[in-house]
Amino acid sequence: MPRRPTEIGPAGERTATAIENLRIARGFAQRELADRVTALGRPMTNTMFSRIERTRRRCDVDDLVAIAAALGVSPLVLLQQAS
For 52, how many CA atoms within 13 A lie in the half-sphere containing its CB? Predict the structure, then answer.
């Protein structure tokens, strides 16, 4: 049975926007942020970030915590930030 993609809801969309906005504000390319997250022990690629930011890939809790640490913010910031 083929897997159906899980829809990304409003919180996921806000989080994707927050990740992209903070990444740009910090001056990181997707590759740089991927390298920072990978160095924290959560292997990620720039393709994964592209898909997260375009809401083509879900950002799970482990991703969220590592991305927040790499951006120097609390995971709550990524969940609560307005678009």
Answer: 27
Joined tokens for residue 75? 């995971």
Burial of 33 (0-12, 13-18, 19+ CB in 10 A): buried
The answer, yes or no, to whether residue 8 has pLDDT greater than 60, is yes
The angle subtended at Cα 14 by Cα 75 and Cα 57, nearest 5°, is 85
In terms of Cα–Cα distance, which of 73, 33, 76, 70 is closest to 53? 33
Residue of 31, 42, 40, 33 whose CA lies nearest to 71: 33
Q: Kindly report, residue by residue over 16-53, the tens digit of the pLDDT.
A: 999 999 999 999 999 999 999 999 999 999 999 999 99
